[in-house]
Design a protein that fits this description.
Helices cover about 30% and strands about 30% of the residues. It has helices spanning about 45-55, 65, 80-90, 115-125, 145; strands at about 5-20, 25, 30, 35, 95-105, 135-140, 150-160. The chain is built from five helices and seven strands. The structure holds magnesium ion.
């Protein structure tokens, strides 16, 4: 008997402002830099975009509905917690992660040497292999707020499946 595999796909996008005096947390890793992202949680823009991609794939709304930034419980919290919760929801719906692909748009800092470390942390959190996550880094060619180094944006796509 053939078992049918069901695929679903979701996208996520997030942007946070950079300010002096905040730690820069990307994918659960603190990156040495003179500025960090501003937000209610740790403002981990990578984890937020992936969380939205996973929630999107199971049609469960967005990160703001599940983890409102008005909730004091989420103040300063590690955004890896949001990924853990998204993974739990995914499993409750009978799905597994096939792969995740993300694009980071940041003028600075250069993230090339951090990509593997971030991938390892995300893979560990989402309980998948490092080969199921890809990270692409881009600058904004000096254009707009990202190009001026005022913000970092991330887009993510996630494919999930059940069989
Ligand atoms: Mg966010």
């Amino acid at each position: 008997m053939n078992q049918q595999t069901n695929f679903r796909i979701g996208t996520g996008y997030d942007i946070h402002r950079l300010e002096i005096g905040r730690p820069l947390i990307l994918g659960g890793i603190e990156i040495p830099f003179e500025k960090g992202l501003v937000g209610h949680s740790d403002a981990d823009v990578i984890s937020h975009a992936i969380c939205d991609a996973l929630l999107g794939a199971i049609a469960l709304g967005d990160i703001g509905e599940h983890f409102p930034d008005t909730d004091p419980n989420y103040k300063g919290v590690s955004s890896l917690k949001f990924l853990e919760k998204a993974l739990t929801l995914l499993r409750e719906h009978g799905y597994k992660i096939s792969n995740i692909d993300i694009t980071i748009c940041a003028e600075r800092p250069k993230l090339g040497k951090w990509k593997n470390i971030i991938k390892e942390k995300l893979a560990e959190t989402l309980q998948i292999s490092i080969t199921q996550i890809n990270i692409k880094g881009k600058t904004n060619e000096g254009l707009d707020s990202i190009g001026r180094g005022e913000a970092i944006a991330v887009s993510a796509i996630a494919l999930i499946y059940s069989n």
